[in-house]
Design goal:
The chain has helices at residues 20-32, 48-59, 146-158, 203-224; strands spanning 18-19, 41-46, 63-69, 80-82, 85-87, 98-99, 105-106, 132-138, 166-170, 187-190, 195-198. By secondary structure, it is of the alpha/beta class.
Length: 233
């Protein structure tokens, strides 16, 4: 199930705030389907969807496996509310935006430091989660430093006695890692930013990475959700 949370039918057009109860309702709905195996759910998210997936695993019950694709370790873009508590959004500095000659913007260095003391409330408490984690990392991500955030999350988990997460490093892959055979997209209009953003990656490496990461994601979910691993995509 692909869950929309903005700009779809009656959902808000802008991300001003999000409520985790909405995602909890979807989790419960999915768990009740007769074709869904009992014993835990798998969640995958890319970019903003990745930190939402981390928050679901950290605060909601029944999540056994999480795949974060080019995610951040902090809550991004808007406050996240749950049961009377709120997690603020990590701030950013617009003066670090780079404008290319083509008019496309590069925002790789814009996020503030998630580990800075003043941003502690934005950090997703993944050490609370009971899930296994797979961090998929495009090493030419031009939206933010996905590998740095993954390393920080690894330390966060290990230092709290949790199992070390799996990392899948993909050289030459950009931010917008989609399923295999989706067209390579180095830059496009981003509705959250309201302008054209650079995603990164080069065609050959990025396309190969999309095949590789999709295969490993499928295996990871089968391994951690009680399925049988098969060799084909």
């Amino acid at each position: 199930m692909s869950l929309a949370y903005t700009s779809f039918e009656d959902l808000p057009k802008k991300l001003l705030e999000l409520h985790l109860e909405y995602f909890e309702e979807a989790l419960h709905y999915f768990q009740k389907l007769p074709q869904v195996r009992k014993g835990g759910m798998g969640i995958m998210g890319i970019s903003k969807g990745a930190d939402l997936s981390l928050s679901m695993a950290s605060f909601l019950e029944g999540v056994s496996a999480v795949v974060s694709v080019n995610g951040c370790n902090a809550n991004l873009l808007c406050p996240l509310h749950y049961r009377g508590s709120s997690m603020p959004a990590l701030g950013l500095s617009r003066n670090r935006v780079i404008m290319r000659d083509s008019g496309v913007f590069n925002v790789r260095g814009c996020n503030n430091d998630p580990l800075a003391l003043e941003n502690a409330a934005c950090l997703v408490p993944i050490e609370q989660a009971a899930a296994r984690f797979l961090f998929v990392i495009g090493q030419d991500d031009q939206v933010w430093d996905s590998e740095l955030y993954a390393r920080q999350m690894e330390e966060q988990l290990v230092s709290n006695g949790k199992m070390r997460p799996e990392m899948l490093l993909l050289p030459g892959a950009g931010h917008l890692l989609e399923p295999p055979y989706f067209p390579f997209c180095p830059a496009s209009y981003d509705k959250f930013a309201g302008t054209y953003l650079e995603w990164g990656g080069n065609p050959e490496s990025h396309s190969a990475a999309q095949e590789k990461h999709w295969q490993r994601i499928r295996e990871f979910f089968l391994e951690n959700l009680g399925g049988a691993v098969q060799s084909k995509l």
